[in-house]
Design brief:
By secondary structure, the protein is α+β, with helices and mostly antiparallel strands. About 55% of the residues lie in helices and about 20% in strands. The protein has helices at about 10-20, 20-35, 40-45, 50-65, 85-100, 100-110, 125, 150-165, 175-185, 190-195, 205-210; strands at about 35-40, 65-70, 75-80, 120, 135-140, 170-175, 200-205. Strand 5, helix 8 (about 150-165) and strand 6 form a beta-alpha-beta unit. The protein starts with 7 loop residues before the first helix and ends with a helix.
């Protein structure tokens, strides 16, 4: 049996949301933070002017994906978690987006057979300053120098697969735990940057790695 195409009115909600960057940022924040927020607070989160944010909020309220209520002199906004598209589409999408680092860890666990003590994401992604073409900078830590070369070979082999899955090129160093500890203790700038600003996506914590 032929399934009819949904009428445009059923598809138009996503069209309006995805073409408005401010609305998307507001929805992302509301989904992650929960609760009620003022328009001014949401404008700060969306890095937009209060007037532009209020226009986006007006449209979201009209679409009923955001609820608005008045408390005293304040107008408060929150996500309508009961809306079918919020529940089935937007919240799962934001959850997947927020799991980016965890997904990198899972992928490396599956693709690299050499045991890794840890994998650290550092650089612009860890600092939150990456642009759409930024590399994913990784430090992969092995238990010893004996396994370093083998791990590096496996990482070379999975680079194309990584790019296809995460839509970013990967750049990496492979150091033994001893090398990381020595370079950190010697105040090597790169090692210090990796440890002090990096984000562990797989394996042991920073304290354990530096013991």
């Amino acid at each position: 049996m032929h399934t009819p195409t949904p009428p445009p009115t059923a598809q138009g909600i996503l069209d309006q949301i995805l073409q408005n960057q401010i609305a998307l940022r507001v929805l992302r924040y509301l989904a992650r933070a929960g609760g009620d927020h003022t328009g001014r607070a949401l404008a700060k989160v969306a890095t937009a002017s209060p007037s532009a944010t209020l226009r986006a909020l007006r449209d979201l309220v009209q679409l009923e994906v955001v609820e608005r209520r008045t408390v005293g002199r304040a107008m408060l906004y929150k996500l309508n978690a009961d809306h079918w598209l919020v529940d089935k589409g937007l919240c799962p999408l934001f959850e997947a987006e927020g799991a980016f680092f965890r997904e990198i860890g899972r992928a490396l666990r599956a693709w690299v057979r050499t045991p890794l003590k840890a994998v650290i994401v550092y650089g612009s992604l860890a600092r939150g300053t990456a642009n759409p073409t930024s590399d994913v900078d990784l430090l992969c830590v092995t238990a010893s120098d004996d396994t370093r070369d083998h791990a590096e070979h496996e990482l070379d082999a999975m680079a194309a697969k990584f790019r296809r899955r995460f839509a970013r090129p990967v750049s990496y160093f492979v150091w033994s735990q001893q090398t990381l500890r020595k370079r950190y203790e010697a105040h090597d700038p790169l090692a210090r940057n990796m440890v002090n600003t990096g984000y562990i996506v797989l394996g042991e914590g920073m304290v354990e790695l530096l013991r």
